Amino acid sequence: MPTIRVELMTGRTVEQKRALAAALTEATVRTLGGNASSVDVVFFDIERHDWATGGELWLDKMAAPPASAG
Amino acid sequence: MPTIRVELMTGRTVEQKRALAAALTEATVRTLGGNASSVDVVFFDIERHDWATGGELWLDKMAAPPASAG
Amino acid sequence: MPTIRVELMTGRTVEQKRALAAALTEATVRTLGGNASSVDVVFFDIERHDWATGGELWLDKMAAPPASAG
Amino acid sequence: MPTIRVELMTGRTVEQKRALAAALTEATVRTLGGNASSVDVVFFDIERHDWATGGELWLDKMAAPPASAG
Amino acid sequence: MPTIRVELMTGRTVEQKRALAAALTEATVRTLGGNASSVDVVFFDIERHDWATGGELWLDKMAAPPASAG
Amino acid sequence: MPTIRVELMTGRTVEQKRALAAALTEATVRTLGGNASSVDVVFFDIERHDWATGGELWLDKMAAPPASAG
Questions:
Q1: pLDDT digits over A36-61, tens only?
Q2: C68 and chain D: CB distance < 8 Å anywhere?
C-alpha cells in the first residue's frame, strides 16, 4: 500500500509506462512518506471503443473532423 | 463524475458498445440530472475463462450440454 | 454479468440510487438483450475530498467563489 | 455477492484459473456461509510491463540478473 | 501479486474477514504456488442500498415479505 | 483520461490528499504530456481490518509487538 491503478488510453509505450510508474511512485513517497517498495502501480490500457464521455465513444470523437473544418 | 464501469462477457460489437454507452449516459442524466459531458463509461471485456460463478468458469458452463439433453 | 459499477459524488439519496439502478439495468437489457436478473449495479460514493480533476480536489473547486464573482 | 476480483500476472493457464476459481469459492462459502451460486470470481491478467512495485516494472525486475550473480 | 479484491455486503465482522483473508490466501498459494507474502486481499463493504440485481436494490429485495407469505 | 485510482490505508488527511492529487497529476502530465484537466485522481481509504497481506490483516500486523521485543 498504497496501490495506484492507472487507466489510460491504449497506445502508451513500455518506456512511457516505465517512466510514469517511477514518477507516480516518487510523487507518492515524496508526499506521503513511507517506502517506495510498498507502492504498487498497475496500468490498464483502455481501447478508444471502450471509453465514452458524454455518451460518445472516444473512437468516434477522434474520428470526427475538427469542429472548425469548413 | 459519475464514472460508469461495465464488465461484460467478451463478444459485444463496437456498435453495441456505442449504443450502450449512449443509453447508460442518457439514463444517468435523466435520473440524476447534471450534464452528459461529465459522465464517463468504460467497458471491460471479460473472457469466459476469466469469469466464474458458483466456482465454475463460464467457459465450462457454456460448454456443458443443456441439462435436459438425453 | 454484466456488472455495472458507478462511482458518484457522495450525496445521492437512496431513492436516486433506486431509480438509477433500475434505469441502468433497463438501458442495458434494452441495448444488449439478455435478462435483467443477470445485471448487477454497484454504487460507490466518493467524497469531494477524495476526487480530484486537473490536480485539484473537488472539495476545493466547489469551495472557490464562481470565476465571475467581483 | 460476494464478488472476488483477482489481478494476477499474465501467464496462468485456464486450468489454473479453473482450480483457483473453485478454491476461492469454496474458501468463501466455508468461511462466510451462504451459497456458492452467489459467489462470482473474475480474473484480470496483468502484463509484466503493466505492474510496478517500488517504481520498477516487473518486466525489468524479472529481466535483471539475480543479485548474487558474479 | 496476486491481489484479491472482495466486495461483500456490509455486516461481516472483523473475525470473519480475518478468517476469509487467511482462507483466500491459503487457497491461492495452494493452487498457484508462490509465496503467501505476495498475496494481498482487500475487502470492500457494500451497503444494501448500493447493490442492485435485476434493477432492484438489495435493500428492497430484503425488505419485501417472502413470496410465499399469505 | 488517464484516471488514477489510489487505494491507501485510512488515516491520511485532506491536506495530504490535496498534495498527493496535485503531485500525481503533475507527474502524469510531465511524463505522458497532455492536459492536467483530463487527469482524474480518486482516493479509496482502506481500513486496517480490510487489508491483508500474506493472509494476515494489517490490523493484526500492526497490533503485534515488534519481533525484537524481549
A1: 999 999 999 999 999 999 999 999 99
A2: no
Q: A touches F (3+ CB pairs < 8 Å)? A: yes
Give the nearest chain B residue to D35 (CA atoms). Answer: B54
Q: Where are the domains of chain B?
A: 3-63
Measured between CA atoms, the residue of chain F closest to residue E15 is F49
Give φ, ψ of E34 to 5 degrees: 85, -175
Examine chains F and D and say if they touch (3+ CB pairs below 8 A): no
Per-residue pLDDT of E12-27, as tens digits, reads: 999 999 999 999 999 9
E-strand spans in chain B? 3-9, 40-46, 51-53, 56-57
E-chain residues within 8 Å CB-CB of C16? none
For a pLDDT cut of 90, what percent of chain B falls above it? 86
Choose among D50, D59, D60: nearest Cβ to A42: D50
In sequence order, what are the beta bridge partners of B57?
Answer: B52
Any idea what the Cα angle at residue E44 is, between residues E42 and D21, rounded to 5°?
60
pLDDT in tens, D8-65: 999 999 999 999 999 999 999 999 999 999 999 999 999 999 999 999 999 999 887 7
Of 3.30.40.230, 3.30.2290.10, 3.30.429.10, 3.60.15.10, the CATH number of A3-63 is 3.30.429.10
Q: What type of residue sits at position C62?
A: M
Nearest CA-CA distance, residue F37 and chain E, Å: 29
Mean of pLDDT over chain E: 93
Is residue D37 within 8 angstroms of chain C, CB to CB?
no
d(CA E58, CA E62): 6
Q: Could you identify the residue written with the cell 419485501? A: E64
For residues F49 and E43, give the distance between their C-alpha atoms in angstroms, rounded to a whole number.
8
Average pLDDT score over residue span F9-23: 97
Residue F55 DSSP code: T
Annotation marks residue C65 as catalytic? no
